[in-house]
UniProtKB/TrEMBL annotation:
It comes from Intestinicryptomonas porci. Keywords: Cell membrane, Membrane, Transferase, Transmembrane, Transmembrane helix. This is 4-hydroxybenzoate polyprenyltransferase. Its cofactor is Mg(2+). It is found in: Membrane. InterPro entries: Polyprenyltransferase_UbiA-li, Prenyltransferase, UbiA_prenyltransferase, UbiA_sf. CDD domains: PT_UbiA_COQ2. It is a multi-pass membrane protein. Its main location: membrane. Signal peptide: none annotated. The gene is ubiA. Belongs to the UbiA prenyltransferase family.
Length: 288
């Protein structure tokens, strides 16, 4: 029972469910490599997924450690595992170190390129945690950190880098940044009072929604460019149109209801768009 309780505590600490936002993009990057002639390998897929979970767990665990003081002062986050005392900082740090090792070992099992890239990737993943202290561009740094997933999966499957994979990485970057801006509206007043930086704290609600809308539009543009770069079939573009419709729906819901329906917008629509992106790549590559 204790082991199960500890698992759920750590899963809650790193918001395990949030992997639904970026993991589909990592799998899409892997599929793009497969469709580009590098072949499907279940073993590579296993190590890619394990590296992804290691990287994300290290990043989220470190974020909880870095933000523990602010989380304890914020009514919305004071019941998180570390400020509530259910997980100590020392235990969380051990968890982060273990997760980082899992990422690095998994990268080494894939190829030498992934191994060497895992170190600067970790710097970005861990460095994000301090961005709110000095820049309102923190949302883009988060997007950058997660956008490494499809590019990393491509490198893992192909053993080399290609500029073509940047398009889908940029699509993820702007999707994550856009939804993170909307999510940050919950803490607009708190961030302002603590002199933390974010787009909502800098520009307020209306301009933040406008900025988020522009980012989602850019995300769609880069998705379409992905289809062009990899010569994906018409079904890819049809699904992209459905994703665009969901983006519009998310903004309209937020304009009408604000943070009252943040869970619907941030969790469900965000995750659904990521899975639709994976479906678009899979079907677009199979039915060219």
């Amino acid at each position: 029972m204790r082991l199960t309780r500890n698992f759920f505590e750590y899963a809650e600490m790193i918001k395990l469910g949030h992997t639904l936002f970026a993991l589909p993009y990592a799998l899409a990057g892997f599929l793009l490599a497969c469709f580009s002639g590098f072949g499907f390998s279940p073993v590579k897929l296993f190590w890619i997924v394990l590296a992804f979970f290691g990287a994300r767990s290290a990043a989220m665990g470190f974020n909880r450690i870095a933000d523990a003081k602010f989380d304890a002062e914020n009514p919305r986050t004071k019941n998180r595992s570390i400020p509530a005392g259910r997980i100590t900082k020392a235990s969380a740090l051990i968890f982060v170190a273990f997760s980082a090792i899992v990422m690095i070992v998994s990268a080494r099992m894939l190829n030498e390129l992934c191994f060497w890239l895992s170190f600067p990737a970790l710097i970005v993943l861990l460095g994000y945690s301090y961005c709110k202290r000095f820049t309102s561009l923190c949302h883009f740094v988060l997007g950058l950190a997660l956008s490494l997933a499809p590019a990393g999966a491509w490198c893992a499957a192909s053993g080399k880098f290609s500029f073509s994979i940047i398009f889908i990485s940029l699509a993820l970057l702007f999707q994550i940044a856009a939804f993170d801006v909307l999510y940050a509206l919950q803490d607009e007043d708190f961030d302002t009072s603590k002199k933390l930086h974010s787009i909502p704290a800098l520009f307020g609600r209306q301009k933040s929604i406008m900025a988020s809308s522009a980012m989602l539009l850019l995300s769609i543009v880069f998705l379409y460019l992905t289809g062009t770069a990899f010569s994906l079939g018409k079904i890819f573009y049809a699904i992209c149109a459905a994703i665009l419709a969901l983006y519009v729906l998310a903004i309209l819901i937020f304009i009408k209801s604000g943070i009252k329906k943040i869970d619907l917008v941030f969790f469900y629509i965000n995750a659904l768009c990521s899975f639709l992106t994976l479906a678009a790549v899979a079907l677009g590559g199979l039915f060219k």
